[in-house]
Amino acid sequence: MVLQEGKVNHSYVVECIDLPLQLERRLEALGIIAGTAVRVLNRKEHGALVIFVRGTRFAIGRGIAENIQVKEAAE
User: Fold this and answer.
1) Strand runs (DSSP E) across 1-75, as ranges?
2) For the structural domain made of 3-67, what CATH number should be given?
3) 75: pLDDT strictly greater than 70
């Protein structure tokens, strides 16, 4: 599934990121790589997501979230 389909207050693990190289490197610099735990904190009206990664909150747009493959994290 893609991160955009994630539910609020659920945790996921990033499987792969399918974005242009420059954008993928920027997410990598923020710590969002394969195997990283991500928690969806909030969903905005127009598709933006607020996520919690490695102790920091990030807002990402729908276009980015639709290209991040995730799986449900084991509780």
Assistant:
1) 11-17, 37-43, 49-53, 56-60, 68-72
2) 2.30.30.90
3) no
> Which pLDDT band, with edges at 50, 70 and 90, does 46 fall under?
confident
Q: Calculate what percentage of the chain has a pLDDT beyond 90.
A: 89
Interatomic CA distance for residues 8 and 3, integer angstroms? 11
**Closest C-alpha to 54, from 23, 11, 17, 15:** 11
